[in-house]
Amino acid sequence: MARHSAVHLANLDLNLLVTLRELLRERNVTRAAARLGVSQPAVSASLARLRRHFDDELLVRSRGGYVLSALAIQLADQVETICTATERLFGTGHDFDPGASRREFTLLMADYTVEVLGARLSTLLAEQAPGTHLHVRLVREAFAADIATTIRFIDGMVAPPVSRFDLPEVRSVELFTDRWVVVADPANPHLAGGPVSLEDLAGMPWVAPFQPDRGFPPAAPMSRQLVLFGIQPRIQIRVESYQAVPHFVAGTERVALLQERLATRVAGPLGLRVLPCPGDPEPIVERLWWHAGYDGDPAHRWLRESLVALAADLAV
């Protein structure tokens, strides 16, 4: 920060952390005050203190309201991480009553996982833990790459197993399985008759999720599968979302690999064909990952057991 060479916790009002989090989330003093259950003047006063501390406006007035300053954008992820870790710290060691708790859980998952489990998890929280809060962070390759650090500050990540997750301090449990299928437009002339082959796929344009700017490393699950097939696809569309993939296949000659649970949900509305994937693809295994330090946390244990139970009810 501009004015502070050293900051000591004893000299800080840690309530400002919570106010900062809500201000950066809402980008609005009135809404932040409502979320915090305090008056608007109290939040305005806290914002003034935060602006003095950071020597920055944080919330900058624009035509449509307020936008985050460059510094506030940097602070947004940090304050989420710190507040989540603090809530865990002071909640550890107590009995957990989901019906009375106001704890916030943070889960990192792909939008595909949200499609599969999201509605069930939402219903469970509303029925069993109505006072709790859930922060879903959509997975990006950068998050998963630094798993040793990331996993310390979230309640869990739902993702397939990869070698970099194999760490002594990381625990996991299987949630559900899936399989790869091919999605294509019914009018695609390359897939007019018979089953699709690897040769067919190799010569077609592709839509690919989480594909880097250059090269073709097998980091993303779909990319890894194509590498195992020996296919280096001709990618026309790159997206940072699984749910976006079928929208860029519909009405074109493009194809994509997609998880069957997602493909069967979107195929009808978009008029897509769902075809068996050739080449004996690897099964998709989605696991819940968490840091071993939370093994004894009753609230965390409740969340883990709830997610496992929700996944067990999924249709095969």
UniProtKB/TrEMBL annotation:
InterPro entries: LysR-type_TF, LysR_HTH_N, LysR_subst-bd, WH-like_DNA-bd_sf, WH_DNA-bd_sf, YidZ_PBP2. Keywords: DNA-binding, Transcription, Transcription regulation. Residues 12-69 form the HTH lysR-type domain. The keyword Coiled coil does not apply. SUPFAM superfamilies: Periplasmic binding protein-like II (SSF53850), Winged helix' DNA-binding domain (SSF46785). Belongs to the LysR transcriptional regulatory family. PANTHER family: HTH-TYPE TRANSCRIPTIONAL REGULATOR LEUO-RELATED (PTHR30118), TRANSCRIPTIONAL REGULATORY PROTEIN (PTHR30118:SF15). This is LysR family transcriptional regulator. The lineage of its organism: Bacteria, Bacillati, Actinomycetota, Actinomycetes, Pseudonocardiales.
